[in-house]
Amino acid sequence: MLNNKKIRFLVLTWLFASFSLIFSANAMQVERMFPEGIKRGKLSTTALAELVIDGKLRQSAIGIRIYSEDNLTVTPASVDVNNVVIYYLENEFGEIQKIWILTAEEASKPIPKRP
């Protein structure tokens, strides 16, 4: 037989599970925002973790940030890709400062324009 404590526990568990599903579904629908001045290219990496964008070896900035498809930061040494569509941002010296590895959905869209 269910007593008051068991009913309260079941209701709270159900509420927690429901809210978890709602918030995780909302988190998956968040669209990434990209800054002005981004460029689009295809990224490949070499065995020495060098960046090749559109067939050209590019110099990376000291504090380079690389964002995966899940928008998590990854180290340049852990990126092992071949012809992946990316957005990238250069600094004033022409070095690659930030890279966003695009999802298939993002890659199918044009570069976002700012008003």
Automatic annotation (TrEMBL):
Signal sequence, renumbered to the chain: 1-27
Keywords annotated in UniProt: Signal
Annotated protein name in UniProt: DUF4258 domain-containing protein
Originating species: Undibacterium danionis
Source organism phylogeny: Bacteria, Pseudomonadati, Pseudomonadota, Betaproteobacteria, Burkholderiales
